Amino acid sequence: MCPDCHGTVFEFGCCKRCGAVHLCGAIIRDASGERFTSRVVRGDRRDWLLLGGAQQAADEDDETLEHADAATATDSVLCARCGALHPEGP
Question: Which end of the chain is more exposed for a tag (fewer CB within 10 A), N or C?
Fold first, then answer.
């Protein structure tokens, strides 16, 4: 949390091969929906959110990436204030 505005802060990461920018953290699911947090608690699965479009980070080796799971990938909108994830609408 930002000590001045109390907003959520995120950890950025960049792929050395293709330059794609990601956020690193964990997706928390509860009755109110999904929320992304940069705090990863022991035992939590680390999630990576790709910023921008999928074509932006396309690479010929994408199919071989160990943690890439296109079957579960969805486009979402991240609230930079609270970390809420919302399905991207039409």
Answer: C
CA 74 to chain centre: 10
Structural domain for 37, as ranges:
1-54+72-90
The alpha-carbon radius of gyration of the chain (Å, integer) is 14
Is 65 within the bounds of a domain? no
* 3-state SS assignment for residue 62: helix
Residue 64 in any domain: the answer is: no
Kindly state whether residue 61 falls inside one of the protein's structural domains.
no
Q: Please give the model's pTM, rounded to 2 decimal places.
A: 0.65
Count of structural domains within the chain = 1
Q: What is the pLDDT of residues 40-67, one digit of tens each?
A: 777 767 888 888 765 444 444 454 454 5
Residue 55 DSSP one-character state: G
Q: How confident is the model at residue 3 (pLDDT cuts 50, 70, 90)?
A: confident
